[in-house]
Amino acid sequence: MDDILTLDYGSGGKKTAALIDEIILPQLGNEALSSLGDGAMLDGKLAFSTDSFVVSPLFFPGGDIGKLCVCGTVNDLAMCGAEPKYLSLALIIEEGFPTESLRRIVASIKSAAQAAGVAVVTGDTKVVERGRGDGVYINTSGIGAVRYPGLGPERMRPGDAVLISGTAGDHGAAVMLARDGLMEGEIRSDCAALNGLARAVLESGADVKVLRDPTRGGAATTLCEFAEASGLGIELDEAAIPVRRDVEAACALLGLDPLYCANEGKMLAVVAAEDAERALEAMRSCPEGENAAMIGRVIADRPGKVVLRTRTGGGRILQKLAGAQLPRIC
Amino acid sequence: MRSAEILERLRALPGQRVRLMEVCGTHTMAIAKAGLKRLLPEGVELVSGPGCPVCVTPPELMDAALELASRPGVTVASYGDMIRVPGSRRGDDLAHRRARGGSVAMVYSPMDAVELARRQPEREVVFLGVGFETTAPGTAASVLAARAQGIKNYSVFPMLRLVEPALRALIGSEGFDVQGFLCPGHVAVVTGSEFFRFLPEEYGLPAVVAGFEPEDVLLSVYELLRMLSESRPGLVNEYKRAVSAEGNALARETMERVFRPARASWRGLGEIDGSGLEFTEELAEFDAVKKFDIRLNRAGTPTACRCGEVITGRMPPEGCQLFGKICTPEDPVGPCMVSSEGACAAAYKYREC
Questions:
Q1: Which residues contact A3 (CB under 8 A, 6 or more apart)?
Q2: Which residues contact B79 (CB under 8 A, 6 or more apart)?
Q3: Which one of A227, A256, A311, B61 is at 20 to 30 Å from B162 when CA atoms are compared?
Q4: Which residues of B touch A255 (CB under 8 A)?
Q5: How many CB atoms lie within 10 A of CB B283?
Q6: 0.90 cut: is pTM over it?
Q7: Which residues in chain A are contacts of B34 at CB distance < 8 A?
Q8: Rounded distance, CA B128 to CA B161, Å?
């Protein structure tokens, strides 16, 4: 670790993992925390998760920080095989923040919570001096009832199918473009609650091994986590990974890779090979999963690694995101 | 043409042992990203050249930029690539300077830096002008825009480099062992494809101006191998959809109004006459070097980093003893591991298999 924390420690990649492994876990580690799932599993019945939201800009095509703070925590719970029930809401507001903007954000929280079937049941507000916050920061925590216990990468087996519920990288690309007004046209964030989608897949009868929503670090980083935790390899077919054309173009322009851009409404699922079609059908029956696709397989060789077969027929190993993605020069 | 067809044609050529250099960092990345090296016929090797702007910037310039970022009242504006490039001290980069209270702004274009200066008249905004003929015209245009708007608190730290003198120096250097060039398509948009004719005519080296899709690269490699097997080195423009023979005259004029060639230092190549750009007298007031009395400390600290050899095609990234062990993208020692176009970053991030 460095002697000071740079922005890279917040990017969700290797540096974030170092921060957790070297500072948090040695002091606070316990059975529930140390498994580092999307949420903690408590007594096999409850799932508990928390997330903080510091997005800039606060309003972007396809969503805003209000929608995001509900969906983010709802999704973490849904990926644990839980039915999200209750949320807490903590607002840290910067002095001078327009009241009307806060009203809009709260209205957005209301409609997102209604759509996801969760209730905000406790909360807190603080106002900090001007210059000490970036408009508004939000933290939500959530509790859900576990319906499908035992999901996790340790259940993966060679031959299993790797599925994604839709196009990769939409949220990251949308926010980056909205931040700087870089390109004409509108790439919308995929921000959405995924509890309906997760339920559909789990209820389809498919043998689901693990679910996760690839947020910071993108699909590539999440798949690397699957490979590492399972001790198995994953082979991806680049041509099968759905990416919107405008997202691909925006990423090419900026020197970014859609596989490393955040999603806020996508799910990665590993299911038994024979259940791949059934799980895909279940995903496609939901609006959030209409572009679902099988993108690869779990393999026995290359343990702990993710291998990408490129469109050209070449192959390369995917790594976790190292630090924040930086736009390039030319 | 699809890549499978091009590969078929490639493999139908007579076998030969050749090293081809992709000059541009964007090619390095495109090749690694598509996993092309393993697809090429045996004996055909692609090596990276001095075409990653971040990588060729010597450490003393980076040190000076870092020092600027910590000066009170100064904001250093830079392309994203430069944010994590260490100077001569490991772990000292613009990201750490910012975390310690320095003012660093990431911009997509020098025009954004001019706008930043306009909005913050109380601060001095210094744009780090890195890149080749690709970014030099835009950097020059930003200076002209600042002058036209009467913006006095904007300046450029010129670290710009020119491709031709570097290629000549490289070809003339000891141990140079490359038989053909994939020429940088983006540079050629500005210079025109004819600009690279000196390679076959003066040095007998075939050259192909190449685009950046995997098919572009494969087709360009095919053209190079074809010319080599026929022993008829020439110049081919594979990237006709973007590159004309004569290039963009307006961009070059803009560049020449603001800058003139000057002796400059390159990582891995040392000092080369006429290979950098400095301000013309007329626009010297926008020169950050003069404005802030920047002095370069060339002494530097000895390092085991071999970036200099990597970007001149003398060593593959894996040949450096620091590669992947001490030097990683999270904790880079040399710029080739930081830049999104760096040969080491490409080799590390996109390990072929």
A1: none
A2: A327, A328, A329, B106, B107, B108, B128, B130, B131
A3: A256
A4: 29, 80, 340-341
A5: 17
A6: no
A7: 310-312, 314
A8: 13
Which of A56, A318, A328 to substitute to test the interface with B, most B CBs within 10 Å? A328
Q: A319 contacts in B (CB within 8 Å)?
A: 348-349, 351
Question: A329, B38: Cβ pair inside 8 Å?
Answer: no
In this structure, is the dihedral angle defined by the CA atoms of residues A8, A11, A16 and A19, taken in order, positive or negative?
positive
| CB spacing of B186 vs A330 below 8 angstroms | yes
Q: Among partner residues A13, A18, A255, which is closest to B340 by beta-carbon distance? A: A255
One-letter amino acid of B12: A
Considering only CB atoms, which chain A residues are within 8 Å of B26? 330
Which of B7, B341, B350 is facing A316, going by the closest CB pair? B350
| Residue B62, φ and ψ in degrees, nearest 5 | -65, -40
Distance, CA of B337 to CA of A287 (rounded, Å): 41
Rounded to whole angstroms, how far apart are CA atoms A218 and A197? 19
Local confidence pLDDT in tens for the 353 residues of chain B: 788 999 999 999 998 999 999 999 899 989 998 999 989 999 999 999 998 888 888 889 999 999 999 999 999 999 988 998 888 888 899 999 999 999 999 998 999 999 999 999 999 999 999 999 999 999 999 999 999 999 999 999 999 999 999 999 999 998 899 999 999 999 999 999 999 999 999 999 999 999 999 999 999 999 999 999 999 999 999 999 999 999 999 999 999 999 999 999 998 888 999 999 999 999 999 999 999 999 988 766 667 888 888 888 889 999 999 998 889 888 888 888 888 788 998 888 887 77
Question: Do residues B114 and B149 make contact, with C-beta atoms less than 8 angstroms apart?
Answer: yes
Residues 6 or more apart whose CB falls under 8 angstroms from that of B260 comprise B277, B278, B279, B280
d(CA B42, CA B203): 25
A30 vs A172: CA distance, rounded Å: 32
Contacts of B36 in chain A (CB under 8 A): 312, 314
Query: Residue A253: closest CA among chain B residues belongs to which residue?
Result: B108
| Domains of chain A and any CATH numbers | 1-36 (no CATH), 38-146 (3.30.1330.10), 153-318 (3.90.650.10)
Cβ within 8 Å of residue B155, ≥6 positions away? B124, B125, B126, B127, B285, B286, B287, B288, B291, B292
Give CA–CA dist A15/A330, Å, rounded: 27
> Any CB–CB contact under 8 A between B299 and chain A?
no
Question: Domains in chain B, start-ordered, CATH in brackets?
Answer: 54-162+248-291 (3.40.50.11740)
Can you tell me the ipTM of this complex? 0.76
